[in-house]
Structures are given as structure tokens and as C-alpha cells.
Amino acid sequence: MKIITPLLIAAIAHEANRAYCQSLGDVSQPVWAEAPEWQQQSALAGVEMHLANPEATPEQSHASWLAQKVAEGWVYGEVKDPENKVHPCCVPYEELPAEQKAKDYIFRGVVHAMAALAEQVEVEHAKTGEGGTAVVEPAPATVDVAVGEKAVTFIGRRESFTDRLYGTGLTFSKGQTRVLPVEIAEKFLRHPDVFSPSAAVAGVRQADADDTETTLAEHAKRQDEQNAQINQLQDARDQVNQMTKDALEQYARTQFKQELDKRQKVGDLRNQVLAWIDQFGIA
């Protein structure tokens, strides 16, 4: 039986929010046990959203909350009125005052802290037999982590994770450990609710066990190609900004098979050619 349930997390997140509201002079929030059902269900929905989407930002948390409120018929109003479904936070995230945005950060922090604690409790429970006897597990085999490398383990609640933030192209399965260059590992470890440092990996040497090095190398190659293309386009733009009307006419005819109206100002002609570069690129 789970000790830390989503409902318990919702209650704790609610109480944290209530304490924060009191610090702002808002004493209208009831204790969890006295909170109306709609308020408890709203908190529970927020918890379940973060548990299902551990990488969700506070902004996405608010967007999820707002979508639910709108679906239930709530509208914006300066004064909160549950009976008439009016709420001052029924606005896009960017329009919220700073003190209201802070609530989403606090809520997310509580959920992730409690989720991490729940996983720890489950692990400790698994290490202890039904009769309370400690279960001895074999020590994992360690690997040689070279200088400039660090091992990280994906501990998020999802079954898999694909990096789209730091541009590595890496995908982690649940519980998977990868040995990474330190500069990349440190970026992942900025998210302690998703990644954990690890000094051991079960099995053989990392380079022989998975596609980490191959994936990083392939992505670095693609990144270099993209950077080269960006630099090439920028060089072309710089050249166009220096061209005369005659040069622009020749460039447009050769590069894009387009004719320019030389009766226009040179600045307008340059803008036309720059627009073609942005639209078609260069050969």
C-alpha cells in the first residue's frame, strides 16, 4: 500500500499555498479538511498533471489549471467568487502578478519533493522484507568513469525521457544510467527531480553498452552542419547589404532566377533579395 498518495501530496501542496497566501495577507483559504470539493479536486488535478509530466514548468502548470477552470465555466474577475465561478487568476500566465506566479513555483516544488520522497519510501520498503527483515541486494558493478566524465541516472516518473532542451539528442529509459561528458552531465543534474548523479552502473563499460557516444557525436555533427549553414546564410546577407543595384540584379538572376525592378531604391532591392534568402536559402 502506498503511504504517500497523490491525495496526500495535494493536501500538503494546498497547505503550503494557504501559508503563502497568509504571508500576503490573504486569510480566506480554508484548511484542507474544510476546503470545498472543487478546491480539493483542483489541487489533486494539479498534482496528477505534474506527476504525469515531471518536466512541466510553472507556466504550463498554470495553463493546465486555467484550461480546467475555463472548461468548468470559470471567468475572470477582480474578486474571487466561487459561487459565481469568478477568479482573478483566470488570465494567461504572463498577465499574472509576480506573487501569483510564485504559487505555481511553490506548488510544483512541493509535488516534486513529495514525489521524490515517495520513491525513496518505496525503495526502502522494497529493501525490507514483509516481516521487516532487511533484504540484502548485490552491489552494482562499477565502471571506470574517466576524467571529464560523470554518470547520471534518469529518475523521473516517465518511462522515458528525450532531451530537447540541451540539444544532445539523448533518450533515457526509466532508471537508465549514462556516462556523459561533465559539461553535459552538469546540465542534466540541474534538474534533481529528473536526474541523479551515479557512481555505479550495472554491467559493462558504458562505451560498450549503449549509444551515448554515438548519439552525442552524431548530434554534434548535425549541430556543426546547422551552424555552418547559418554562417553561410549570414555571409550571404552581409554581402547583399554591400551590393549595388547592378550586383543585386545579377545575384537575384543567378541565385534565384528572379528579375529585380531597378527603378526601386537600392535599399528596397536589398530587402527583396534578403527575403528570398530567408525563404529559399542559397545553393
Task: Reconstruct the topology from this structure.
Elements: H1 6-23, H2 37-52, H3 58-71, E1 75-76, E2 86-87, H4 98-126, E3 149-154, E4 160-162, E5 171-173, E6 177-181, H5 182-188, E7 195-198, H6 206-209, H7 212-240, H8 245-256, H9 266-280
Parallel strand pairs: 1-2
Antiparallel strand pairs: 3-6, 3-7, 4-5
Helix pairs in contact: 1-2, 1-4, 2-3, 2-4, 3-4, 7-9, 8-9
**Helical amount among residues, as a percent range?**
40-55%
How far is the first residue's CA from the last residue's CA? 64 Å
- Mean pLDDT equals 82
- Low-confidence blocks of residues: 135-143, 201-208
Describe this protein's structure:
The protein has helices at 6-23, 37-52, 58-71, 98-126, 182-188, 206-209, 212-240, 245-256, 266-280, and strands spanning 75-76, 86-87, 149-154, 160-162, 171-173, 177-181, 195-198. It is mostly helical and 283 residues long. It folds into 3 domains: 6-126, no CATH class; 149-210, no CATH class; 215-280, no CATH class. The longest helix is centred in the middle third of the chain and has 29 residues, at 98-126. Residues 135-143 and 201-208 have low confidence and may be disordered.
Brief overview:
With 283 residues, this protein is mainly alpha-helical. It has helices spanning 6-23, 37-52, 58-71, 98-126, 182-188, 206-209, 212-240, 245-256, 266-280, and strands spanning 75-76, 86-87, 149-154, 160-162, 171-173, 177-181, 195-198.
